[in-house]
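(Protein data)
===
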Amino acid sequence: MRLSLRRVVAVLACAAMAATEPLEARATDGRTDGRRLNVLLIISDDLNTDMGCYGHREVKTPALDRLCRAGVRFDAAFCQAPLCNPSRVSLLSGLRPDKTGVYTLFTPTRQRLGPSAVMLPGRFKQAGYFTVQVGKVFHTGEGFEDPQSWDVAHFEFGKSPAASEVLRAGAPPGPTKHTIDWAVLKTPDEHTPDGIVARKAARYLEQAAAADKPFFAAVGFRRPHAPFAAPQKYFDMYPTDKTSLPAPVPPGYADTLLPAALPYAWGPRPLTEGEQRQLRSAYFACTTYMDAQVGVLLDALDRLGLWRNTVVAFLSDNGYHLGDHGGLWHKNSLFEESCRVPLVVYAPGAKGAGRGCARVVELLDLYPTLMDLCGLAPPHALDGRSLAPLLDDPDAPWRHAAYSVVARAADRTKNVEETEFLGRAVRTERWRYIEWDGGRQGVELYDRQSDPAELHNLGENGAHAEVRAELRELLSAHAGQAAPAGP
């Protein structure tokens, strides 16, 4: 959707008029120094926590390092479904996948929720905010985007680069039917899809600031989602001969994995060390490239003086495997690497600024958090809880776990279209417990205190029967009873 500057200004004016009207649902006035708080939501695609601000020694993320110094970095944040579409629908609706009915890449956003459901940006639109989407926020394509949530929407484009932009590329044999290709681009940042998204979003921030109107801006970056494509200067930062390899696993480890635990069929052959280094180098390059685009937005906040009245949240929709667990790539598993995501929240005046938080939180918590910070009442019951107390005190008591779900089908060589059974995980500060098909296809239990790499399944270990029983009860209390939705 393209709008002229005149049209944008008109939309902003309408938002301003709406913002002055009383809102029956408003919990508080949501103001700082007489101004309503804005929201800038930044979403990366398939980003794990291999980042400088999360302690990774190789990966450079100066912009996000800076955001972490301003806000609170959540070190144990988890998505509710480690796959783009179901994760985004869950966090943007504030509901678990069992309620949204979205478990796969093929289920439309509102198939079960219907047109009356109020998504996160839609609630801000109701409250009189100017709402704008730039890039990938909801999943891409007709039936997945949510036009009714936005005043203005510029949807994602440019997943794969044009051949004319590619200097060199490769496509090693990854999981069956799931490419893990990479490409070095000659294109400057400002002409790449994510670069265009960042600069277009910065212009909307400028227009909103000039109009002095409250806004909810969501900016979605495609990278580091495959293909791992970025300008050459970012690849130059990660020479393949110096890039680390995945951590080794015990001999015979692959044979100990439950069949249901594998998100995809293994590739036709194991990747060579050189191929693994190249892929990890390319992924790291894309992470730094994405970080540079985040920097464009942070610079805009500086220039426009928006830090004093703008909440900024950065997150990824799911994690990503980079050859760990003996050769897993992609996502859609229930291991830590797939379910854990980066989450950083900056709120003006929050007392925990610059600190990390070890409490277990969920992406579901974002919706109620933004409602709380901006003084808005939720439009319906939400499954998450506000993180506002942790923004003031990251060490505050927090007795909550995180829950994730994946869909499985018999044919593990392609994306799941028709769900055969579900896998569910609960993650506490110490344990990860997983049930496949309600336990009929196996259970997994990992003690992250002694086994942070989750390589030793204690699911059949009699010494841990009491722990398993407690976690199973916890999982059952939060698992929906709805049948898996079809495509």
Q: What stands out?
A: Residues 259 and 454 are 16 Å apart (CA to CA).
